[in-house]
Amino acid sequence: TSELLRNICMRNLVRKYCRGLTAERKVQLQQKVVTSAVFSGKKEGYLESLSQPFLETRLKENDLNPKVLQLIRGENIKYVTPVIKYDRNGFKARERLLVLTQSSAYVVEMAKIKQKIEYSTLKGISTSNLSDGIVVIHVPEDNKQKGDVILQCEHVFETVTKLCILANKQSQVKVVKGSLRFRVGSGKEGTMVFTVGPEPQVFKDKTGQLTVV
After folding, report:
1. CB 177 within 8 A of CB 195
2. Which residues lie below 8 Å from residue 83, measured CB to CB, with a gap of 6+?
3. Beta bridge partners of 193
4. TH1 domain spans which residues (predicted)?
5. What are the φ and ψ backbone dihedral angles of 74, each rounded to 5 degrees?
6. If we measure between CA atoms, which residue out of 134, 125, 157 comes closest to residue 39?
7. What is the 3-state secondary structure (H, E, C) of 31-91?
């Protein structure tokens, strides 16, 4: 009888908790479940991220330049966050915005859209197993795309989770060790190397590879 009552009590407590969840809190928990499936036991910093709630967005829609809003009019903006984008050739760091809508991801520079990636064409998303915020968005090899997108995000777990949910690409997120290959464009590839050091930095090494410490 004690065991039966214990189970009934537990079910009642769970039911009460679930019925008391706000819509916002429910979305948070659903996103955290995806984050766990993608990163748990794979990427450093995941455990520390558990207590940090995801924000709906890091920047509001009215923080975007009106010209950008006009260019993506008709699309429902879901998430905006500042990022650092690294050029595919010289690996120069550029301040950009990553704008996620219901159907596409945009890399934005002030009033310009530098790259648009439709979720239906997105080939995959890669991050390292270390505590850096590097995210590589892999795109198809066609004339519409300049090559894969190399970004550095302050809130990497949040950003990748939002992106893979909107794109429905949870199964195509890879957490890599050591290095990864990315497409530069015109059939060319580059290599990114991940390593550990006394302080975080991202630079082009003597061999021409992008090194992330």
Report:
1. no
2. 96, 97, 98, 107, 151, 152, 153, 159
3. 179, 211
4. 43-213
5. 95, -15
6. 157
7. HHHHHHHHHCCCCCCHHHHCCCCCCCCCCCHHHCCHHHHHHCCCCCEEEEEEEEEECCCCC
143 has pLDDT over 70: no
- At position 111, the amino acid (one-letter code) is A
What fold does the segment set 25-176 form as a domain? PH-domain like (2.30.29)
**Terminal CA-CA length for the chain:** 58
Residue 23 CA from chain centroid, whole number: 23
Pair type for strands 202-204 and 210-212: antiparallel
175-200 pLDDT, tens digit per residue, is 999 999 998 877 788 899 999 999 99
Do residues 133 and 152 touch, judged by C-beta distance below 8 A? yes
- Where in the chain are the domains? 25-176
Give percent of the chain with pLDDT exceeding 90: 82
